[in-house]
Specification:
Blueprint (H helix, E strand, L loop, with lengths): L1 E5 L2 E4 L4 E8 L7 E7 L6 E6 L5 E3 L7 E6 L4 E6 L8 E8 L13 E2 L3 E6 L1
Parallel strand pairs: 2-11
Antiparallel strand pairs: 1-3, 3-8, 4-5, 4-9, 5-6, 7-8, 9-10, 9-11
């Protein structure tokens, strides 16, 4: 499974940004796709994930501001980020997993894309 993320960049605080991640390769039976982020000097954290049946889960820090969506026909997952804050600055990683045990996603997923930098200026 190959994951290609795009959409990162520099944005002013309060502004929006949308990340996209396209999956290719042996993508059969992929259950969850998600986004993680890692800020300098901090541990990687799960931002949001979405399962094949549309179930979504968000980190408390982004609830109400970020929306994850998925286009199964295009094998693409999106992260719409609104009301961005300086503390959202991080490298964002797209990930995917065939595992259906959602609790495992908090530790990570099996397949990873290269990160995309999101910088929010205050």
């Amino acid at each position: 499974v190959q994951l290609q993320a795009s959409g990162g960049g520099l944005v002013q605080a309060g502004g929006p940004l949308r990340l996209s991640c396209a999956a290719s390769g042996s993508i059969f039976n992929i259950n969850a796709m998600g986004w993680y982020r890692q800020a300098p000097g901090k541990q990687r954290e799960l931002v949001a994930f979405i399962t094949n049946n549309g179930s979504r889960n968000y980190a408390n820090s982004v609830k109400g501001r970020f929306t994850i969506s998925r286009d199964n026909a295009e094998n693409t997952v999106y992260l719409q980020m609104n009301s961005l804050k300086a503390e959202d600055t991080a490298v964002y990683y797209c990930a995917a997993d065939r595992n259906t045990y959602t609790r495992t996603y908090y530790d990570g997923m099996t397949y990873w894309g290269k990160g995309t930098q999101v910088t929010v200026s205050s």
